[in-house]
Amino acid sequence: MGFAVKRPQLPAGWPSPTTCRDCGVPALWTRTAKDRAMLVELDVSDHGNVLVSLHGGKLHAGVLGKAQAAAARDYTGLRLAHAVNCPGPRGAQAASQRGRS
Ligand SMILES: [Zn+2]
């Protein structure tokens, strides 16, 4: 599933993107299953593992395991947590957390 345009249209009903405080890139505010706020990249990625869906007018982020993500990619676009790419403090924090999990 490829997008011809650089900035894909978000599905109908999704809240407008916000911009990352740290680097100014447009991104989506979501809540994870643990009710934590998580900033997610606007564009879908070939190696994304976050399934963003709309629940009650809010974006919910489901973080998938490797096998789940591979299966889900067959029918939908997955995104990356913005922290993965963010050059700001948020990204640095994610990098330090990555060693622990
Ligand atoms: Zn950022």
Keywords:
single chain, six-stranded mixed beta sheet, 101 residues, 6 strands, alpha+beta, 3 helices, 32% strand, 21% helix, binds zinc ion
Account of the protein in words:
- The chain is α+β, with helices and mostly antiparallel strands and 101 residues long.
- It has one domain.
- Helix content is 21%, strand content 32%.
- It contains three helices and six strands, in the order βββββαβαα.
- The protein has helices at 66-72, 82-85, 89-98, and strands at residues 18-19, 26-32, 37-44, 50-55, 58-63, 79-81.
- Strands 1, 2, 3, 4, 5 and 6 form a six-stranded mixed sheet that branches.
- Residues 20, 22-23, 25, 82, 86, 88, 90 line the site of zinc ion (ZN).
Q: Indicate the proportion of strand residues.
A: 25-35%
What is the H/E order?
EEEEEHEHH
SS content category: alpha+beta
Shape: globular
Assembly state of the chains shown? single chain
Q: Spell out which ligands are present.
A: zinc ion
| Intertermini distance | 31 Å
Mean pLDDT: 86
**Biggest β-sheet strands, sense, barrel:** 6 strands, mixed
Question: What is the number of helical segments per DSSP (H or I, 4+ residues)?
Answer: 3
Q: Helical proportion?
A: 10-25%
Ranges where pLDDT stays below 50 over 5 or more residues in a row are none
Radius of gyration: 13 Å
The count of domains is 1
Q: How many DSSP E strands?
A: 6
